[in-house]
UniProtKB/TrEMBL annotation:
This is Transporter substrate-binding protein. InterPro entries: Leu_Ile_Val-bd, Peripla_BP_I, TAT_signal. CDD domains: PBP1_amide_urea_BP-like.
Length: 414
């Protein structure tokens, strides 16, 4: 089953290298909001829904009168799943567009390619993606969940449900490598055993040898941190080998690209995941948001996931900070964000933690059945405790680093 692309493409100009899509009427006094996402290439399964909710956020802000009496103008660049384009567009956003804020990046590699550039130009940066934690940067606000909020929940839940022996498969870059370290830590803390860990480049599509290894190792379950369209092949091949019934899967990534719609119900039934958002969250804000989205895009709208919702909520957090600051100037907006600012969004209350510039948030465990996530457990107001182990921007606001770049042990955690 293929995801519909009808509502994912934001215009032919957005897919061109040199011509961004600009939403809204261009005017000299418009507030400039730049988004850089992967709208094509192997990571578009994440970027396309994020682009839709970013557009919706800017439309909502402008429909309410804009900010400070000014329209917000959205420029949306397609990085085409290529790091080179991220660096090019980040420079363009900061130096050429003179953006008031940039919301950008999906992979950790893309974030680290642009974060220093935006800090150097003093352009306020939001990274609205669930990730491995460890960014400590006064200029950078990370709104997505981190392992202490989600991996720490799904690992013990899966171990209680299925058993103590675990096999880990993960993407071969910072996110997968560091998240795998967190997985091993949480498995050990809960009295379990990690039988093996394997890493795969993003373009790998053949998982037959690994599936044979898993069959031989006989773990109680597999936990996956695979990433991107190519890695969806793992779940298809795993199900085709008849493995789902004997050795189930928990994941820290499955679903944030709506992968549950790319495979059949039978191939995905029973997968567990934990995120800061699932569509089934029962609150009035979420219900109203989904109704508005469906009215705008139709019944075949993209399923909302954490990345898409955080893109919306990240834009709204920034907008609330601009209102509180009474200006779009970077320093007053940062101060407003770090004042304990809370936004009540579709996922629930999201609050900026001033020590880390990350969010405290509600966290949920989902059980996939018939291509729909059923929430089986929820946890209120979870702090970014992993990043707080290494980052204190209250005590040292001059920090600007990715402190887990060389792993947890190098950061003094493992």
């Amino acid at each position: 089953m293929k995801l519909s692309r009808r509502h994912f493409v934001v215009g032919s100009s957005a897919l061109a290298l040199t011509a961004p899509a600009t939403i809204g009427r261009a005017q000299s006094d418009a507030i400039k909001f730049v988004s850089i996402l992967d709208l094509s290439g192997g990571l578009d399964i994440y970027g396309a829904p994020m682009a839709e909710t970013t557009k919706l956020a800017i439309e909502d802000i402008n429909a309410a009168g804009g900010l400070l009496g000014r329209e917000v103008e959205l420029t949306l660049y397609d990085a085409q799943s290529t790091i080179q384009f991220y660096t090019q567009y980040a420079t363009q956003a900061a130096a050429g567009d003179k953006a008031d804020t940039v919301h950008a990046g999906i992979t950790s590699a893309s974030r680290e390619a642009i974060r220093p550039t935006l800090a150097r130009f003093k352009t306020l940066y939001f990274y609205n993606v669930q990730y491995e934690g460890g960014v400590c940067d006064y200029n950078n606000f990370c709104t997505g969940s981190t392992p202490a909020q989600t991996v720490a929940k799904v690992v013990p839940y899966a171990m209680e449900k299925w058993g103590k022996k675990v096999y880990i498969v993960a993407a071969d870059y910072n996110y997968g490598q560091i998240t795998a370290q967190w997985m091993q830590r949480f498995v050990a803390e809960n009295g379990g055993e990690t039988l093996d860990v394997e890493f795969f480049p993003l373009d790998v599509t053949n998982f037959g040898p690994t599936i044979n290894k898993i069959q031989t190792a006989k773990p109680d379950f597999v936990i996956s941190a695979l990433v991107g369209g190519a890695h969806v092949s793992f779940y298809r091949q795993y199900a085709a080998a008849g493995m789902m019934q004997d050795i189930p899967i928990a994941s820290t990534t499955f679903g944030v690209g709506n992968e549950q719609k790319l495979i059949s119900a039978e191939e995905g039934n029973g997968i567990l995941a934990s995120y800061g958002y699932f569509e089934g969250i029962d609150n009035p804000v979420n219900k109203a948001f989904l109704e508005r989205l469906e009215a705008k895009l139709g019944a075949d709208r993209p399923v909302m996931n954490e990345l898409a919702i955080r893109s919306y909520e990240g834009a709204m957090l920034w907008a609330e900070a601009v209102k509180a600051a009474g200006t779009v100037d970077r320093e007053p907006v940062i101060e407003a964000l770090r004042s304990g600012l809370t936004y009540e969004g579709p996922s629930g209350a999201v609050t900026i933690d001033p020590h880390t510039n990350h969010c405290s948030m509600n966290v949920y465990i989902g059980d996939l059945q018939d291509q729909t996530w059923n929430i089986v457990e929820s946890f209120a107001d979870q702090p970014p405790a992993d990043t707080a182990l290494v980052c204190d921007l209250v005590a040292n606001p001059d920090q600007s680093a990715f402190l887990f770049e060389n792993g947890l042990e190098a950061a003094g955690i493992k």
